[in-house]
Structure formats: structure tokens, C-alpha cells
Amino acid sequence: MVISYNTIDLLKRKYSGTSSFYFSLFRYSKPMDFASHQKNTDLLKCLILSDEFIEEYSDFLPINDDRLDQAVVLNRYEFEGSLISMFLQGTCTDQIVSNEIEARELTKTLLSDLKVDLDQLLIFKLENIDWSKFTMEATLSCFYIVFYSARRCWLILGFDDVY
């Protein structure tokens, strides 16, 4: 997966002060048998409860795996709309974009920077803030965990604000 980090660097600058923007690639090295997972959220649990994830993302611990069942699977258009909404919402104290046009442009640029066919992504939105201790301590947060099966890569994208 080839990624241009220009937009990600811009977002990290916009989410400052009491907020932080997260973008991370994670490659799960063990084979994942999709057939063994009854629901997509089972696949998400397999990743988040793996030793590799826990070692890499210890800041998120402990994980409340019961809340992962409440993750919403988004299609590409819902993902785009959700990102636009996240940018328009801003943080507790700062605006990220000035209007909807700027939010749409930022979303379009971010998604084009990923350089993948968005229809190949399995996108989870973790709407329940209780999914991890880390997000429970935030005043405001929004996280997406995206699976790109062609490369067995996971993308963690989101922000938190501990204002």
C-alpha cells in the first residue's frame, strides 16, 4: 500500500492542542481465515485482541471487546460522508475546516492519498467510545479501523480530544 502523507501531516497540524489525529498502518502477519468469521465484527475482534495489535497499540488498552460488536461497517460512500462530518464537527475547541466544501475537499484528498480502490476496503467505525480505555478518557473521539484485504493491512484513522 503506497500512501502520500501530505494530507495526513496537514491533519496532524490541524488536530493540535488538546486533540490528536491518528493515522497508522498495521500489518497483521498471521493469515486470517475469513470463512471462520461469522460476522465482520468477529474479524475486527480478531485483530484488536491479537497480541500484535496489543503490543503495537498499548495506549488503547484495555479493550472492551463487548463494545466491538457495536462497530458499524461502512461502505465507501458512508465512509466519505462520515469523514466529512468528522471534519465539520472539529474538536472541542478548534475548527478543522471552515465549511462543507473544505471538508469535502479534505476528505477527497485524504482518500485519494491512500491510492487504493475504496471498494476493496472493509471499513469499521467505532462509534461507541467505550471500546477502549483510551477513548473513554476522551471528551470527543472518532475512530475508523479499515481492512485492506489485498495487502492484509489495517489502517487506524481517527482523533481524540481530551479537553
Written description of the protein model:
It is built from 7 helices and 5 strands. A hairpin with a 4-residue loop joins strand 4 and strand 5. The protein has a 5-stranded antiparallel sheet with strand order 1-5-4-3-2, sandwiched between helices. The protein has 163 residues and is α+β, with helices and mostly antiparallel strands.
Short account of what is shown:
This protein has 163 residues and is of the alpha+beta class.
Give the termini separation: 34 Å
Helix content range of the residues, please? Answer: 25-40%
Give the low-confidence spans. none
- What is the helix/strand order? HEHHHEHHEHEE
Largest sheet: 5 strands, antiparallel
As a percent range, the share of strand residues is: 15-25%
Given the C-alpha coordinates, what overall shape results? globular
- What would you report as the Rg, rounded to the nearest angstrom? 15 Å
DSSP summary, beta strand count: 5
User: Strands across the major sheet, in which order?
Assistant: 1-5-4-3-2
Overall pLDDT score = 88
Q: Structural class of the helix and strand makeup?
A: alpha+beta
- What is the number of helices? 7
Provide the descriptors you would attach to this structure in a database record.
163 residues, alpha+beta, 5-stranded antiparallel beta sheet, 7 helices, 5 strands, 37% helix, 22% strand
Write the layout of secondary structure elements.
Layout: H1 6-14, E1 19-27, H2 40-48, H3 51-56, H4 65-68, E2 72-74, H5 76-89, H6 100-113, E3 121-126, H7 133-136, E4 140-148, E5 153-161
Antiparallel strand pairs: 1-5, 2-3, 3-4, 4-5
Helix pairs in contact: 5-6
